[in-house]
Fold:
Amino acid sequence: MSIVETYDAVSMTLTDNAAKKVEILIVEEGNPNLNLRVYVTGGGCSGFQYGFSFDEKIADEDTVVSNKGAKLLVDSLSIQYLVGSKIDYTEGLQGSRFIVENPMAITTCGCGMSFSI
Structure:
């Protein structure tokens, strides 16, 4: 039996705008089994770095955050750095991208893709 831990929107949020973009990208890929994965790795200008990918598999230790049918996956190591975060999607002068608004980040770099706690 698989145990998937699911957090409510208070712990982590996938905005409506991000959920809509995830659904658009899934339709474009033609694979309804895809989910957006956000993860944290070492590196970047500020110490840690955010990463995004699409993944078909939900691991037993993944946290799943859902909104409007879209699923956001977070691995068990990354969740400790992302609790309370809001994942959004933006289009602007810096291009189109998913962004993380992380209340635990003490400093971030100019592009917003790296942070320190």
Notes: The mean pLDDT is 84. Helices lie at 16-29, 79-82. Residues 73 and 85 are 13 Å apart (CA to CA). The chain is about 15% helix and 40% strand.
